[in-house]
Structures are given as C-alpha cells and as structure tokens.
Amino acid sequence: MSKNIIFYFSGTGNSLKVAKDVAAAIEDCEIISMGKSHKLSGIYERIGFVYPMYAGGMPIVVERFIKALDLSENKNSFIFAICTSGSGVAGGLTNISKIIGGKGGKLSYGESIRCYSNYVVLYPMGSDPDNKAKAQAQATKQVIKDIQSMAVKTIFKNSLMELIHGLFIKSLANKDKGFNVSEACNNCAICSKVCPVENIKMQDGKPIFLHHCEQCMACVQWCPKQAINFKNKTQNRGRYHHPDVTLTDMINEKS
Length: 255
Ligand SMILES: Cc1cc2nc3c(=O)[nH]c(=O)nc-3n(C[C@H](O)[C@H](O)[C@H](O)COP(=O)(O)O)c2cc1C
Ligand code: SF4
Ligand code: SF4
Fold this sequence. Notes:
This is 4Fe-4S dicluster protein. This protein is an alpha/beta fold and 255 residues long.
C-alpha cells in the first residue's frame, strides 16, 4: 500500500496532469480514477481529489464518488482538493468540504488551478494551449509545495457558484442526446475507451450514448476523426487536450 493516494477525474487531461505532477512530487502515491467506486483499505498520510470545475461546482460523478468513499479509517489524514477550471475561480470546493466534514474528516486544503478551458460545446477552443499548459504547470508548483508541507488552507463558501451549479449541473447527464456521429467515424472505439464513466457502447461500428453523460468532452476532444459533434455547434471548432497528456495516459490511468 502506498502512503498517499490521489483520486482524479479528467476529460481532456488538465486534471490528470495536475494529479500526476502532485503524485510525482509527494512520492509513494497511487492515482485512481473517480469513474468507478473505490474501497479505501489502510491508512493514508495524504488523500487528494483532483477534478475539473463544471458549472461552478463539482462534476456529478465526483460528488457521488466522494459521498460513497469510506473515510472511517482515514479521518486524520491530510485531505486536499484541487479544482481545475478555465477561469481559475474557486468554485467546486465548498461542497467537497461539506461532504468530507459530514463523514467526520476534514478538508485541510483546497485550491483551484487555472487551465485551458475545454467546453467546446459552448465556445471555440482557444489558440494558446502551450502557454496555458505552462501557466498550469507554474500554478501547480505552488500547490505541490503546500501539499508537501501539508499546509492548511481554509475553503471559503462561494454562494454564487453554488447557485449556478445547482441550476445547471443536473441538466448535463442527458446532453449526450445532442451528440451526433459523422460519416468520418472509422469504428476505432477510442471514444468508448476514453469515456471515464462508461457512457458509450459501440453498436454496428458506431458509438451509442447511454445518457449518464458527465459532459467531460473526452469523446469529442479525443476522437481522431473529429467525428463526434454537439448538434451543429462544434463542426468548425478546434479540438483540445492537454499537450503533455496522451490518449494512452488517459486510457491506462482510467483502468
Ligand atoms: C461541462 C463543463 C463545464 C465547465 N464549467 C466551467 C465553469 O463553470 N467554470 C470554468 O472556469 N470552467 C469550466 N469548464 C472548463 C473546465 O473546468 C476546465 O477546462 C478543466 O481544466 C478541464 O479539466 P480536464 O482537462 O481535466 O477535463 C467546464 C468544462 C466542462 C466540460
Ligand atoms: S473515436 Fe471517433 S472515429 Fe473512433 S469510433 Fe468513436 S466516433 Fe468513431
Ligand atoms: S459520453 Fe463523452 S462527454 Fe459524456 S461522459 Fe463520456 S466521454 Fe464524457
């Protein structure tokens, strides 16, 4: 058993990259996807959660994962959360603080890291992924120092973010009804393999969406043929994934 463990959720690699950088720096650290439930066994020095901010808060799967996690043996661990987002606004942290507090643990440290904004359904992709990746790496360095020294950082309540999140987050699961698959699809099944919540099955050589979507954009962004689109919005928009994260990383880490 390792001394430290980090749970992550990631569609386009920003959060996976942060999780890997932190894990490498604190050493003796496992990285586990929050796509499936997990049973903690043994006592960890540090337990971390790294995930993207969705609509001002946590992805549904992350909330469900943490609620189901048995922390009874780890109430005294140093528990931290890192939320990656396009804006760098610290939404997505107050709720996790509440959930962990309700389990008898304490969220000792929470921080948000500004990254490339990946929600291609809503807006075109920006043109500067390498600079954004550099800025992300720079911001991660400070967070690593804090986590190495087990610094405490209070999480302030963000009522506006909580309101926005409550209004929008539940609508995401069915948004995959808006996905369409073009003739360019070559039946490679990458979309199905990269989906972190098993929301895609291959049928007659084409992906079928199962309506428990997180809108993480992994399928849209990693499809090598750009064959998955949302309604008529994304056909002419570019695609993004973190420049230092490969498809193999995404699929291997997930399993
Ligand atoms: C469904 C969805 C909702 C998002 N909502 C927000 C948001 O409210 N605020 C924000 O700053 N970024 C938002 N983003 C951008 C992501 O939080 C950001 O790009 C994140 O770093 C992606 O992480 P990943 O590469 O690990 O998936 C959203 C992205 C998606 C896909
Ligand atoms: S990743 Fe793209 S090309 Fe491959 S099966 Fe899925 S939709 Fe088709
Ligand atoms: S179907 Fe696509 S957008 Fe939805 S959770 Fe799976 S990979 Fe993410």
